[in-house]
Design a protein that fits this description.
The protein has 231 residues and is an alpha/beta fold. It has one domain: Class I glutamine amidotransferase (GATase) domain (Rossmann fold), CATH 3.40.50.880. It is built from five helices and eleven strands. The strands form two sheets. The chain has a nine-stranded mixed β-sheet with strand order 2-1-3-4-11-10-9-6-7, sandwiched between helices. Strands 5-8 form a two-stranded antiparallel ribbon. β3, α2 and β4 form a beta-alpha-beta unit. It is globular. The model has no long low-confidence stretch (mean pLDDT 96). It holds the Pfam family GATase_5. Pathway: Purine metabolism; IMP biosynthesis via de novo pathway; 5-amino-1-(5-phospho-D-ribosyl)imidazole from N(2)-formyl-N(1)-(5-phospho-D-ribosyl)glycinamide: step 1/2. Its EC number is 6.3.5.3, 3.5.1.2.
Length: 231
């Protein structure tokens, strides 16, 4: 499966996302934000980082990059799209998923290994998990506070669009402890933690078994590949 990873000026984790795709058995395809060519990929990842214009509002300027026209069109046709951290912010700014993001409630950048609960295991990117499963994924953000109006929160909670929820501690003040959401169709998912940093033993979060052995993030990438192969 060919999975495109878009690089924006300021992307930090595009190579990590490409590596995660490769570890999951897919073929990563590097895409550039200034192009209009998705190169025939079957899924798309908007990686984390601090894209140009983030000082105005995180993800706002990048969401108008030329390639985002193609990403929005592909998403609306059912192509799986994953937005990680800054990519999550872009998806929200492009209105592919509900909500928005503001500065962390404590006004500080945070980096930690974060416990999450899987709330929706039916999307293209989460079907390899069990609903209610608890996982650990690295987190690093400054503008990670998920917000929405009361009507939107009620709707996404009621319709199962909350994909992940923070456990033990809410690191950024996100409403309802929301760490990730999906669109109604389930092909677009955004989350604040970084699954690409938990894909290979020796480089992931600590677990009770061993230091740096956590690979919960790999399931995001195997999920989308295995679902595509099953179709």
């Amino acid at each position: 499966m060919r999975v495109g990873v878009v690089t924006f000026p300021g992307s930090l984790d595009d190579r990590d996302a490409q590596r995660a795709v490769r570890l999951a058995g897919g073929e990563p395809v590097a895409l550039w934000h200034g192009d209009h060519d998705l190169q025939g990929v079957e899924a798309i990842i908007l990686p984390g980082g601090f894209s140009y214009g983030d000082y105005l509002r995180a993800g706002a300027i990048a969401s108008f990059s030329p390639i985002m026209t193609e990403v929005v069109d592909a998403a609306n046709k059912g192509v799986p799209v994953l937005g990680i951290c800054n990519g999550f912010q872009m998806l929200a700014e492009a209105r592919l998923i509900p909500g928005a993001h503001t500065r962390n409630a404590h006004q500080q950048f945070i980096r930690r290994d974060q416990r999450l609960r899987v709330e929706n295991a039916r999307t293209d990117w989460t079907n390899g998990f069990d609903e209610g499963q608890e996982i650990t994924i690295p987190l690093k953000n400054a503008d990670g506070r998920f917000i929405a109006d009361a009507e939107t929160i009620k709707r996404i909670e009621g319709e199962g669009q909350v994909a992940f929820r923070y456990l033990e501690v809410n690191p950024n003040g996100s409403m309802d402890d929301i760490a990730g959401v999906s669109n109604a169709r389930g092909n677009v998912v955004g989350l604040m933690p970084h699954p690409e940093h938990a894909t290979e033993p020796g480089f992931g979060p600590d677990t009770p078994d061993a230091m740096s052995s956590g690979i919960d993030g790999l399931t995001f990438f195997t999920s989308v590949i295995e679902r595509a192969l099953a179709r």
